[in-house]
Amino acid sequence: MDPGLRRRDTEFGESNLHQGRYPMTGAALRRANLESLVEAQGATRATPPLLLSADPYFDLAGEEFGRRLLLTTDATGAEHCLRPDFTLPIVQSYIADGVGRPAAFSYMGPIFRQREIGPAEFDQAGIELLAQPNGDIALDQVLTFARAALSIFGVVPHVRLGGVGLFEALLVQADMPDAWRPRIRNRFGHTEALDRLLTRLEAAPDMPREQQPSRDALIEDITAQMVAAGLSLSEGRTPEEIADRYLEQQALDAAHVPAATLKLLRDYLAISGPVLQALTQIEALASRHRLMLGAPIRAIRRHLNGLGEARVTFDASFSPRLDYYTGIVFEMTGANGQVLASGGQYDRLLERLGATAPIAASGCSVWVDRLEAEVAQ
Amino acid sequence: MTGITLAVPSKGRLEELTREWFSQNGMTITRPGGARSYLGAVEGMPEVTVRFFPASEIARELIRGTIDIGVTGRDLIHETSEHGPSAVSFAKPLGFGNADVVVAVPDSWIDVTHMHDLADVASDFRARHGRWMRIATKYITITRQHFAKAGIAEYRTVESLGATEAAPASGVADIVVDITTTGSTLAANGLRVLEDGVMLQSEACLIVSRTADRSADSQTQLETFLAKLGTTAHI
């Protein structure tokens, strides 16, 4: 909790409220309203423990997120972290209870992350909608929740939409050797890394193909090297895997991504602006390149009505750097550009956490301390 | 309060080279209590207190601002904190302790020559092997920064405080981020530095803390001290 809020809470505190002598004002009132909104979602209120095992976070989000965790070690050497978000423990306990039934969870409370500015403990509120029969309706509820939360703080946000599903649909249809698709998908959302890859592909020289050794000869060679270096042939990368990727790599150097496809990707990724204008540009691009992008574009259009008077932009290159996101993602920012709410659809998350099949999931979180800071401005 | 604190490495080759460097530049560091003492002085400069610290503690204390000047490796400033480089001013490279922090993979990974190959391998490592690619290193901060820049998120670091180059053979990790001067230890262990795998070129430096709280007097003494060594600092 923001220490400032805590102080105000005691000043105007709950006991006064209940005695009805002083109306709540300011921060306490906004907080109570947000609390009511969280309660009003027709969802189970989730209160995961504050102390969680750190491993699932590293497993799911990697070192980049890991460095933001507040870690501690118990007597056995096992690593724990102070709850850095609500989504993971909520989804884990949903999976543990047996997946399949539609479920909705809402939450509000402190989370802990190392940040460049601001205290490491701060409040988040949000919702998680799991295995809902209609993903569109679920995302609408998520967007409505985020808008309502922001309006409690008087914020009319700038909404930035990203299309993970749209990019995946484009990528699967674009003309290129198959092996390049996962390499490009993996860099989506990391502007510099994707730019470097495209630049490399654009510059790929027309090299004459050298005669490659046979796969068997390569495997034999690699196995000998691994044995000499004392490496396990099975625990990590195997000789077959290395040989295959080596040969694939050699083939890729010869199998160019057509210049027209590279231009398509560049043109697509550069599209960013007011949502209707951006989607029209994408439709034009799709028809020029004979791509079927109707379904993912319509999916984005369907959500625009619900966003009301907010300024909505679509940014073709925008995506969280986590590969479990699918469909549509969004960010809502305030006057100074800080992210106040973020979320979207992540149908691959439950699978990544152990579910045996993809399960529809969408949700968002709002940053309570940043919202309060918007009011103060 | 007046006076300034200079921290120098407390033992080994780094201590000798540091004291040699100061004497070549006209300053004699004395250690009256011998090697077991952690307090010293600079002859003829009573305003300077010399402290003998391990090199990693010098980096930490420079960033925290509890000492004014220190001699330590550039790598340790980068590793101790993400904010390390902005918390200090590198006043002068001293011309010794040169070493590179590098990414090295097993020789047998013939398909991996650049960071972008590593990005490809990392991205489907988990799907193939049911775990993330593991990197043994004692340079966790530098690794995270460098890999984030390269767009690689799908890995785990395994902290290694010694003999990092042995980690792939012992099965603790798949690749390493390590410090090396000639690369010969890595090569002897069947590891190869990626062509764009140099993350940081380090050497021993005279470093001034920008976070230390100094009186006007101390500030003047600091400037005088640096001027005698033929340098200045951005503080």
The CATH topology of the largest domain in chain A comes to BirA Bifunctional Protein, domain 2
State the largest interface: A-B, 38 and 38 residues
Helix residue percentage of chain A:
40-55%
Please provide the count of β strands of chain A: 12
By CATH, the superfamily of the largest domain in chain A comes out as Bira Bifunctional Protein, Domain 2
Helix content class of chain B: 25-40%
| Largest sheet: number of strands, sense, barrel closure of chain A | 9 strands, mixed
The main pleated sheet of chain B reads as: 7 strands, mixed
The string of secondary-structure elements of chain B, in order, is EHEEEHEHHEEHEHEHEHEEH
CATH architecture of the largest domain in chain A: 2-Layer Sandwich
CATH fold label of the largest domain in chain B:
D-Maltodextrin-Binding Protein, domain 2
Mean pLDDT of chain A: 87
Oligomer: heterodimer
Q: How much strand content do the residues of chain B show?
A: 25-35%
Number of domains of chain B: 2
**CATH-derived architecture of the largest domain in chain B:** 3-Layer(aba) Sandwich
Q: Strand tally of chain B, please?
A: 12
Please state the structural category of chain A: alpha+beta
Q: Distance between termini of chain B?
A: 19 Å
What can you tell me about this protein's structure?
The complex is a heterodimer of chains A (377) and B (235). Chain A has 16 helices and twelve strands. With 377 residues, chain A is of the alpha+beta class. Chain A has three domains: 178 residues, 2-Layer Sandwich (BirA Bifunctional Protein, domain 2); 123 residues, BirA Bifunctional Protein, domain 2; 40 residues, no CATH class. In chain A, helix 3 packs antiparallel against helix 6. Chain B has two domains: 121 residues, D-Maltodextrin-Binding Protein, domain 2 (3-Layer(aba) Sandwich); 104 residues, D-Maltodextrin-Binding Protein, domain 2, CATH 3.40.190.10. Chain B has nine helices and twelve strands. In chain B, the strands form two sheets. Chain B has a seven-stranded mixed sheet with strand order 2-3-4-1-5-12-6, sandwiched between helices. In chain B, strand 3 and strand 4 form a beta hairpin. The two termini of chain B are 19 Å apart. The mean pLDDT of chain B is 91. At the A-B interface, helix 4, helix 8, helix 9, helix 10 and helix 11 of A face helix 5, helix 6, strand 9 and helix 7 of B.
